[in-house]
Design goal:
mainly alpha, about 80% helix, globular, Growth Hormone, Chain: A, single chain, 22 helices, about 0% strand
Amino acid sequence: MKRQSILKSKDGVSYVLPFLLVTCCFALWGFANDITNPMVKSFSKIFRMSVTDGALVQLAFYGGYFCMALPAALFIKKFNYKSGILMGLGLYAIGALMFIPAARIGNYYPFLVAYFILTCGLSFLETSANPFILAMGDRETATRRLNFAQSFNPIGSLCGMFVAMKFIQSRMNPMSSAERATLDDASFEAVKSADLAVIAGPYVTIGLVLVVVFILILLMRNPVKKLPSEGRSGTLGPTVGRLWKNKAYRNGVIAQFFYVGAQITCWTFIIQYGTSVLMPEYMAQGMEQGLAEQTAEKTSQMLNIVAMVCFCSTRFISTWLMKYFKPARMLAFFAAADILLTLGVIFIGGRVGLGCLVGVSVFMSLMFPTIYGLALGDVGNDTEIGAAGLIMAILGGSVLPPLQASIIDRGVVAGLPGVNVSFVVPLICFVAVLLYGRSQSRIAAKATK
């Protein structure tokens, strides 16, 4: 039996070129996500703040996703997926370019505003691009197609991590947080201004790249002019009601909230975890405190890049495996593996715990697109609003990092380092993903009988 191509419809229509252009957007929002995660540590140091205050970066970042997802869906319903992508690219570019005035003002809060506007654009992009990819072909291959497109997201993430490490962290002043706290006001302002200029540079560059991508998408022929909801009358209320009654969708939104929270907490706080493990070792080797802290941060960020390489590789592999195994069953298996690894992060600690934290990314790889595909698999004509609900679930990446940061700031909890104990937050998240995978697997098994 000949397998159906994931980039062709049954009547032979090819979606290759639009698929490639839209997939570029997956890489672009991956870049934004993972150049931003290390900024929690960087802003905490630059502005002499607690980890909890630094985590407001994630609150602003993922808060934009939540606030704009439903307006984005309504915009898409009125226009089309292509228009939604163009709006997303425009807002993303504006937010990135706002880093220029934010750096000149030299205050923390303009950066939070820039992040919020930037992620309003990302919310438009994700609300548009994910269902756009699902619509580029037949329903039977939709989840595989989305997993394939999402495989390019971690490539952008890798670029974001590399830029954060090479062009931001390594170029910032190497003084430790403790040393910065002893500076007089004039010296502090000079160091702060220089570091903020370093942070702004890559964001301004990506803003200019976005202008180019905007033009290419604008010139692209729209391959999906008709939306799934087209021809259905009805208001937002009944649509939300139908979606809420759909158990697979409702539980998928909940699972997505917890998955995104787990992903962001693991990738954000690997810097704090790695620093807590490696910095004492470097100081014992005779390094000064500031150099030891900076070296530990750079090593931790390098491990984060290793984790992302594993994440990216496994996503391609898991997409291939979905030809032979049910997506829901794979989701449950991967979540169970992450539960075990997170327990190692909490209770084993040290370099072994750090290795477990890197390993978590291997099994997170298929979660987002698989939950997304399973949740939207049976919503019919309510795809746009359904997609908005799943993007609003990204709020988990906004709410949970400050919670984890507050545990880290406690220092020692129940005799364990607070940074270790804080990983109970993603542990709970992976349990929620496991439960969703198991429930959907049982439903799929019943349907085949």
